[in-house]
């Protein structure tokens, strides 16, 4: 029996799907050649003419894949965890995460944020990246930019924008090396789940769960569970300006988080050393941060 893998059809999504298929095959958990990759077009892929935040709605990157999984058209789906909402349907279970890649963002078009020319036009549709850039450089002109990684790189090359930010991990998985400058996480704290590939299957499919668990990374799992518990308690979506990162250090997690107003003038941040598996502390941190946040931040979140 072929194991059917559901994925988006973008070059990055397909590259990630192939990595997961080969991990399963080389772990000998599923015979070579027997993972069948089925690409799907999601709402996020279909809507290209406007920022997804304006479209509204939840799960634009996963809706069609979720349906295919629940209805049994595929056995599992491979996702960039950054694009997966923190609230998931109860029929769907996160069975496995691959070891986290480079979690930094890369700046394309300048050597550093400081070196961007006065008033430079920076293309990003990420509310987090926009707020972070505005907080450091209020003079920058932030413009929405859509399309896959290659399209965005071309827009910088052709001068449509002066610069953009892209995830290091995505560039590397596409085999694009040597472009831009990696920005330290102390300067640009990444999105929750950045650089993590996750694999979801049906909650009641214990056979597939056990196959997938063999290629899972426990440390990365603990990190994204903390980051996602934080986002869940905030009531944040991929349209909310939120950054969170858990880094494994000496048996514990060094957890840092930030929430922003859209214009980046207001930032609330916090950090804590937490135990692996502790989802309560990040959730409490989220509630405390929202309590002390000004209305310009609070209005962007919808805690339960
Ligand atoms: N929002 C699109 C998206 N989703 C995941 C990645 C990169 C790979 C990752 O972070 O796992 C990207 C592109 C980017 O932000 O540059």
UniProtKB/TrEMBL annotation:
The modification S-(dipyrrolylmethanemethyl)cysteine is found at residue 238. One of its GO terms (molecular function) is hydroxymethylbilane synthase activity. The keyword Zinc-finger does not apply. It catalyses: 4 porphobilinogen + H2O = hydroxymethylbilane + 4 NH4(+). It comes from the Bacteria. Residues 223-291 form the Porphobilinogen deaminase C-terminal domain. Gene3D superfamilies: Periplasmic binding protein-like II, Porphobilinogen deaminase, C-terminal domain. The keyword Transferase applies. Binds 1 dipyrromethane group covalently. Pathway: Porphyrin-containing compound metabolism; protoporphyrin-IX biosynthesis; coproporphyrinogen-III from 5-aminolevulinate: step 2/4. Keywords: Porphyrin biosynthesis, Transferase. One of its GO terms (biological process) is protoporphyrinogen IX biosynthetic process. GO terms for cellular component: cytoplasm. Belongs to the HMBS family. The porphobilinogen subunits are added to the dipyrromethane group. This is Porphobilinogen deaminase. It comes from Sphingomonas piscis. The gene is hemC.
